[in-house]
Design goal:
Elements: E1 21-25, H1 32-42, E2 47-48, E3 51-53, E4 67-69, H2 72-80, E5 84-90, E6 93-98, H3 99-108, E7 112-115, H4 118-127, E8 132-137, H5 141-150, H6 156-171, E9 178-181, H7 185-196
Parallel strand pairs: 1-7, 1-8, 2-7, 3-4, 8-9
Antiparallel strand pairs: 3-6, 5-6
Helix pairs in contact: 1-7, 5-6
Bound molecules: guanosine-5'-monophosphate (5GP).
Length: about 200
C-alpha cells in the first residue's frame, strides 16, 4: 500500500496569486479523462498534471500527453526517491503524480488540476489540506457500467476490477468538498473552471 503521507511532502498548496490545487476524482469510466481532454483543448491556461503509470498505453495514447508510461523498476525508483506527490495501485497497475512540476506550477500561480483516483485524493487531502477535492459522479450506476463496458479497451476481468473499485469510489463521495454529476462535458468543464479561478 502507498504511504498515506510522504515524509518529503512540503505543504505547497497554493501559489502567490491564490490559485490552489484542484483534484478531480471519481470512478473509472465516469468520464474524467474526457473532461480533462476538453479542458486541455478549451482552457490551455489550466495546467494538467501528467501522471506516471505502469499500465500499457491504450490505442491513441501518447507518452507524455495522457501519461508517462514507465516500467515497474522506474516506478519503484520514483517512489524510493520521493519523486511522487502521491501514488496508488489501481486495478493491477500503479499510478502516481510527479511532485516537482506540481510544486513549480503552484509556486508560479498557475491553476493546477490533478485527475487521480480515490486513494490518491485521500493522500492529497493529508499532505495538501488546502486542495479542493472535486468528485465527478455518474448520472447513475447503469450509465457507469455501460460506459466502462462500451469503451471496449479492457478485457472482462479488468472491467470487473474497475467496477468493483467504482463501487468503493462511489461510496466515498461524501469525503470530497463537492460533487459534479457528469451530465454534459461542457457543463462539468464550465463548473470546474469557475471553481478553480
Ligand atoms: P486509467 O487506467 O483508466 O487511465 O486510470 C485508472 C485510474 O487511475 C483512474 O481513476 C485515474 O483517475 C487514476 N489515476 C490516473 N493517474 C493517477 C495518479 O497519478 N495517481 C492516482 N492515485 N491515480 C491516478
Amino acid at each position: 500500500m502507498p504511504p498515506s503521507e510522504s515524509p518529503e511532502a512540503t505543504p505547497v498548496s497554493s501559489g502567490p496569486t491564490g490559485n490552489r490545487l484542484t483534484v478531480l476524482s471519481g470512478p473509472s469510466g465516469v468520464g474524467k479523462s474526457t473532461v480533462v481532454a476538453e479542458l486541455r483543448r478549451s482552457h490551455p491556461e489550466v495546467w494538467l498534471s501528467v501522471s506516471v503509470t505502469t499500465r500499457t498505453p491504450r490505442p491513441g495514447e501518447t507518452h507524455g500527453v495522457e501519461y508517462f508510461f514507465v516500467s515497474d523498476a522506474e516506478f519503484d525508483r520514483m517512489v524510493a526517491a520521493g519523486e511522487l506527490l502521491e501514488w496508488a495501485e489501481f486495478a493491477g497497475n500503479r499510478y502516481g503524480t510527479p511532485r516537482a512540476p506540481v510544486e513549480q506550477k503552484l509556486a508560479e500561480g498557475t491553476p493546477t488540476l490533478l485527475e487521480i483516483d480515490l486513494q490518491g485524493a485521500r493522500q492529497v487531502r493529508e499532505t495538501m489540506p488546502a486542495a479542493l477535492l472535486v468528485f465527478l459522479a455518474p448520472p447513475s450506476w447503469e450509465v457507469l457500467e455501460s460506459r466502462l463496458r462500451g469503451r471496449g479497451t479492457e478485457p472482462e476481468d479488468v472491467i470487473e476490477r474497475r467496477l468493483a473499485a467504482g463501487r468503493v469510489e462511489l461510496a466515498a463521495e461524501k469525503e470530497f468538498d463537492l460533487s459534479l454529476v457528469n451530465t454534459s462535458v461542457d457543463e462539468v468543464c464550465g463548473r470546474l473552471i469557475a471553481l478553480m479561478k
